[in-house]
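Morning F.,

Quick status update on the modeling queue. The single chain you submitted on Monday has been processed. Sequence for confirmation:
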Amino acid sequence: MPGIVKLTVYTVVNILPLLILALLPFRDNLRLSPKWTAALTLALLLISDCLSYIAMLYDAAAAASCFSILLYLVFYLIAVRASLTKLLTVLLILMNFATLATETAAFLRFLFLAAGDVPLYTWTHTVFYAVGLLLAFPFFSQMLNNQIRPQVTAGNAEAFWRHLWVLPATFCMVNYYAVFHAGGAVPFAHSWWNIAFMWLVNLGFLFTVHLAASLLEGGRENLRLHRANSQLELRVSQYEALKQNIEQTRRARHDLKKHLQAIQGYIDSGDMEKLESYVKEYGVSLPMAAGTFSRNPAVDSVLRYYAEKAQEEDVDFDVSFQMEAQAVIPEPELCVLLGNLLENALDAASEIEEGFIRVNARQVGESMLYITVDNSSRRGPLIENGRFRSRKRDGYGIGIDSVRAIADRFHGDARFFWQDNIFYASIMLNP
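Structure tokens below.
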């Protein structure tokens, strides 16, 4: 019977690398302080040590292995602040890692000792298993740190996580099928080809995750560039509108003198009827005042710009914007969000006679902001895979994706639907 030292060393070797990998992608999302996380880790090691001792006494290694997986899951739920899909994905990745390390260790024992089957909890088994873990560890740690962790910290890739778990689950099935089809872990490890196959399968799995994460990162970068371009276009449009307003003001001041002279002439002559007619005609020719829609200058400039565009397109534009002067999120983000919503609304409303846009915003407390934009739209949106397709070009609409990304980033929600020739957009921001 192995001593308690051998059993403890085996438990540490068996559990600690898995715990390090388990926490690696979530180290910025821990529920507890580092001190309490370390204490929880120590508790898990002690429980696993007792579990190994019981499994050794009653020859129940398989049952202990299944219970250990459940134990990891409980540890995750206590230690990590993350969705179940993220926890499941990483747990499945660890199962691939453990299988590869176990088979590699068994192969090395067969290669150097001519016997792959060595009793558990012995120094020989522990040393070879540690070597197997060390060989596989760099590949999986790099993937969890470089590909998985950025998606955890991004905070707006829930669709990615809803599907990513399928990858490690599929490769788990391939690994387990190959092992059990060969008659078990030890017979499987007796073949060079089997071990080469398992390493190729797992390297293929790592490359597939890398490719998926790279595609997502590329999409996120394209969205960031689109938001930057939208901000630039918005500022250019605001600058052009400001130039036009300045020019209109200059012309108005120049013309005002002429009008005042004409009015004074009618007054001097006492012709009140012609004076009244002249004043009415002059009033009609005056440009519409832009008005003020909100207390925030940046937001107000966006609303004024689209109000003027709506007037040019003969679209009724109604705004009720109740928010504080200080925006609840950074002004560039809020302006891009409003710009995308209003641009889409104006495009749709301008296609209909007597088209309209209704903009409402309500701030609740010091941070929560609700925004709704309703507009007339004679056609419903084209939706594919839960995303809106663009009618201007091939592919998906970037504006709606940008609005959703901003809402996600500030712990909010964005919902869109079309009914009875009206398109409804509802945004909630809660940073």
